[in-house]
Amino acid sequence: MGKVGHTFIDLEEVDSTNLYAERMLQKGSVAEGTVILAKFQTAGMGQDDHQWESASGQNLTFSIVLHPRFLSPGRQFLLNKVISLGVLDFLADYVEGATIKWPNDILIGSKKIGGILIRINVEGESLETAIVGIGLNVNQTKFDPSLTQAASLVQVLHQELKLKEALILLCNAIDMRYSQLKNNNNEQLKSDFHQKLLGYKLERKFVVDGQQIIGIIEGVDEFGRLLVIHPGEPVKAYAHKEIEYLLK
Ligand code: BTN
User: Fold this and answer.
1) Which ligand 1 atom is at minimum distance from the Cα of 43?
2) Are residues 157 and 71 in the same domain?
3) Could you tell me if the CB of 197 is within 6 A of ligand 1?
């Protein structure tokens, strides 16, 4: 199995690196660890059918092809952990206090600097392919005013990063975390993920069914559901979109 980033496919412009990876996989086999990056995406995809906006040549927008055949579909959230922890390990060399806003937004303070979009393909009882799309805002300084939460690394560091160098370091960090997963080091991944989880073990405000409600995040279960204790209630497990974390 190849290291993440053993091969880079470097594109000037593409609709979406995730879609490009999907087309490659439809045509034939793609080695694990292949990375497809683009200077500009004309139809970058975000979570929940949102678009992912990224100024040309200023940020990292790329997809990694993995073949996590050792994972059953029910355990796919382990991949989210691996990737978000890899991104945070990379960031730790530059900034303090980056966090993961469940399920996998990358935040510095209350600003989102990165997002992850994983598409899996199941064959039988295992994950045949995962296309891991990562968008990390690095050198962009101006964002569409509608994107009130968006920020980039340069706005925190006040120094631009060389994108290709950053990408290689980021791939190495992800590769390390992926090796932990392959070596079944799931307890380590779990506790590291919890340590980096925004609001972990803290009393915070959430919205559930349109109602604002206090809760304490107890962690994330093996299916990737957010575990929250509301005052006087037993722990509840929420799937994506069932609960909203209020940043303020
Ligand atoms: C999110 O909404 O938080 C997820 C954003 C994921 C964006 C990346 S950019 C590279 C890859 N290609 C895409 O079309 N989307 C992902």
Assistant:
1) 14
2) yes
3) no
Shared domain for 16 and 70, answered yes or no, is: yes
Burial class of 178 by CB neighbour count within 10 A (0 to 12, 13 to 18, 19+): buried
d(CA 25, CA 73): 19
Cα of 85 from ligand 1 centre, angstroms? 17
Distance CA 204, CA 214 (A): 6
- Summarize pLDDT for 162-219 with one digit per residue, the tens: 999 999 999 999 999 999 999 999 999 999 999 999 999 999 999 999 999 999 999 9
Residues 128 and 224 in one domain: no
Looking at the structure, tell me whether residues 118 and 239 fall in a common domain: no
Residues of the domain holding 160: 7-195
Task: Give the number of other Cβ atoms within 10 Å of residue 115's Cβ.
Answer: 23
CB of 15 closer than 6 angstroms to any ligand 1 atom: no
Residues above pLDDT 70, as percent of the chain: 99
The per-residue pLDDT for range 126-155, each reduced to its tens digit, is: 999 999 999 999 999 999 999 999 999 999
Q: Please, what sign has the CA dihedral across residues 32, 35, 41, 42? A: negative
Instruction: Write down the pLDDT at residue 1.
Output: 58
Quote the pLDDT of residue 153. 97
Query: How buried is residue 15: exposed, middle or buried, by Cβ count under 10 Å (0-12/13-18/19+)?
Result: middle
Mean pLDDT of the chain: 96
pLDDT of res. 104: 87
Quick check: 244 pLDDT over 90? yes
Tell me, using a 6 A CB cutoff, whether residue 63 lines ligand 1.
yes
- Given this model, what pLDDT does residue 242 score? 96
